[in-house]
Structure prediction request, 398 residues.
Amino acid sequence: MIPTIDSQIGITTYSTSFDGIGGKIRSAPEDFQVYEKISEKSLNSIKEQGSYAVFKLTKKKIDTSHALSDIFKRRGIRLKALGLKDASAVTEQFVCANNSGNSVDELVSDKYSLKKIGYVKKPLSKKDMVGNHFKIKISDCSQGLSNFHEHDRILNFYGYQRFGSKRPVTHLIGKAILQKNFKKAVDLIVSFTSPYDSDENTSIREKLTDTSNYARYLDQVPPQMDVERIVLQEMIDHGNEQKAIRAIPLHLRRFYIQAYQSFIFNLSLSAAFVDGENLFECIDGDVCFDNAGVIGKFVRGMDQRLALPFVGYSYYKKTRFHLQITKILESEEMSPKDFFIKEMQEVSSEGGFRQAAIHCTDYLASDDTVEFTLSRGSFATILLREIMKPEDPIAAGF
Prediction:
């Protein structure tokens, strides 16, 4: 049976026949370890001398953004990460200076350590990252982890984090913005509740369903609800929903649109699998990625991986998945042209393609611990979902 929260984010199927071992992840930060991997070419470009310093950032109980913000506050050094790592794990990643100014050799706090490993001629970017290696302990699980052999048969769904995890709302906000229903977007941001959220958060959100309460309860909104505070303040000051949405940082507004595109992708992938499409092999006419991540048409004899459309205003119709995608868009009362927003052009999205199946390598499993490497953009929680088949993903640590 598919958990309710899975269906809410567009995942309506499992792609493996494994029964699942249950259990829980992230019982302690050390139970979920993530090691970022960059390309061999990028690794070899790090020298003893150069223009831009490169560091290894190791952390736990703090996410990447807050760690880099703290480094800037303490030393005035602005660093850029290749990928974001959350707080509920022990993570190791590369970060790079974006100018050739001040640097440090090492910096240590109670939640992170920063160590310089060399220099590069030009700053590293997310294109240099090829994936992540994971080592994960599954607590309180039944025996049988070593019997899971379907790690090469897992659909490349977007994971719970993309949609807000305990509060799966980011895609709903994105849809409201695309439909130019800025009032609904504001309502979702400040007052959407979820049974997985804390009682404190739910209580304040319920009060904020009444717009006349905005000024009364603004000071009671907890600091971690920073986006909500921005929107509420703008509504109190100007009472204009479109202005309130525009007050949100651009990268977050774009994230809302991407979350809705991710929801459409998950629905499309689910529908294609249920309809019997082979999503693990390419056939003539398919759009595919090669080993370098370059997209193109399927060529026999080449090592390629099937791609599905990621719907935007430049949606490509000529794939074997057009029927499923068309039905989904019709049920959502959306069309590709809706992803261009005249009133907020900076968040418009042309779309593209995403790999249909997870590319998993270096897979090892024994007792209650599993290790594997995933290419950039794939979610470890989606692989773990197939192994554990949790009844309640959020309670299981997802």
Summary: The two ends are 17 Å apart (CA to CA). The chain has three domains: 31-131, 164-250, 258-355. The chain has twelve helices and 13 strands. The CA atoms of residues 82 and 361 lie 21 Å apart.
